[in-house]
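quick one before i forget lol
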Amino acid sequence: MKTTHVFLVVGIFVICDAVVVGALVYWMVSNLREIPAKFPFRSPLPGAVRREFQSFRIDMFSVGWGYHVEVDEEHLHLFPAKMERWFGVTPASIPWSAIKPVSTGRWSCKVKIASWDVTGPKWCLELAGKQG
């Protein structure tokens, strides 16, 4: 096989991979943008508890260390970390009444927020059953 053929085959694979990965990232980011569209940001109440770089799984997308979280009596506030902000994901404030508990594990909780299955830190999501 000639060297030019090898470069051509490698080039085709690189281009195909870039298109597929780009499409997946675009699809994931567009899904992550739906939550703030449905639950616009509201300022946290005084005394809210905040932890940074929390991991969530939203439907089939795992966002490891992707959110700073603040909770108060009325809302679960999600602030996207820098990487998500680069892709245009904005903060969201989800009322406790919109969060339905599904199950609780040792370190995480699974909840239903509108049509999304969300798994995240137990310290904040287990409050949904107590608040809502």
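fyi The mean pLDDT is 91.
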